[in-house]
Amino acid sequence: MNFLVLSLTCVFCKSAVCHRNLRMLAAAVSGTGLEAFGLMVLPYAISVLCTAIGIVPLMVFLAFGRENKKQRMVRILSSWLSIVLLNGVATAVYNLTGLENLYLYTALATAGITYVLVKNLVVSVQRQKRQMSVVLYNKTVSVPCIGLLDSGNLLTMPLSGNPVHIADAALLQKLVDEKTVQKEIPYRALGNPHGKLQVYCMDGMKVETEPAKFCDWKQVWVGCAENGVLCNKPYQLILHASVADRCGCTKDPSQMTKN
């Protein structure tokens, strides 16, 4: 049931955390263990209260990671609503068919887990050529992330023509300091033909082309994505179109620099 609760919570409040479904499954199993222990050592009413105010927030944290106070509260409230909805559905089905709640939860959980695994497999096959593991580094800080190969990103620096990648603001905050070189460049976008983009010069970037094999860039320019552009996405970086030519899909191995 906990997995179904977290799945409904994710429907109500989208999340961009990596490996979300696996994290939800691990959180659900952990929550089930804690709930079983609580039922053994505590009175039923106190156990239910502890689940609501302690175990549910813990599962939310394990499944969706660190969030600000408002986001965390909204997600917890969504989890409580999901519990009420699931119990309501189970009770209604039992009243109509006589099917015990436990069997219903088992059937729903099995169907849900099977759906998630199949969906992940299909999505993984479809996206594996477009999403790549990336490490951005600047000074002494290096941050791993997921990058999307985007043939539509043709943004370059005005004078040098160097490619510009687009990163989530939260990712850049971990890398940028007061000594980081930054500039403002013009760009065009749908509905904003005369926009300005803040870009930062990172010391380097590594893109994993195969397990333990990387393409390496030095002095890369990374722009800060507008609010909402990378929200609820499984990736935190939009790579420039030239990345595909160099290390993603090129037929000439000599064009690739591997570490």
Looking at the structure, what is the overall shape? elongated
Which regions contain 5 or more consecutive residues with pLDDT less than 50? 249-259
Distance between the termini: 46 Å
Amount of helix: 40-55%
Give a count of the beta strands, DSSP E runs of length 2 or more.
7
Structure description:
It is built from seven helices and seven strands, in the order αααααβββαββββα. Helix content is 48%, strand content 24%. It has helices at residues 2-12, 20-41, 44-64, 69-97, 101-127, 169-175, 242-248, and strands spanning 131-138, 141-149, 164-167, 182-189, 192-210, 213-224, 237-239. The protein has a six-stranded mixed barrel with strand order 1-2-7-3-6-5. It is an alpha+beta fold and 259 residues long. The model is unreliable at 249-259 (pLDDT under 50). The protein has two domains: 2-127, no CATH class; 131-255, Cathepsin D, subunit A, domain 1.
Write the layout of secondary structure elements.
Elements: H1 2-12, H2 20-41, H3 44-64, H4 69-97, H5 101-127, E1 131-138, E2 141-149, E3 164-167, H6 169-175, E4 182-189, E5 192-210, E6 213-224, E7 237-239, H7 242-248
Parallel strand pairs: 2-7, 3-6
Antiparallel strand pairs: 1-2, 1-5, 3-7, 4-5, 5-6
Helix pairs in contact: 1-2, 1-4, 2-3, 3-4
Key descriptive features of the protein:
259 residues; alpha+beta; Cathepsin D, subunit A, domain 1; 6-stranded mixed beta barrel; 7 helices; disordered C terminus
What's a quick, concise take on this entry?
The protein is 48% helix and 24% strand.
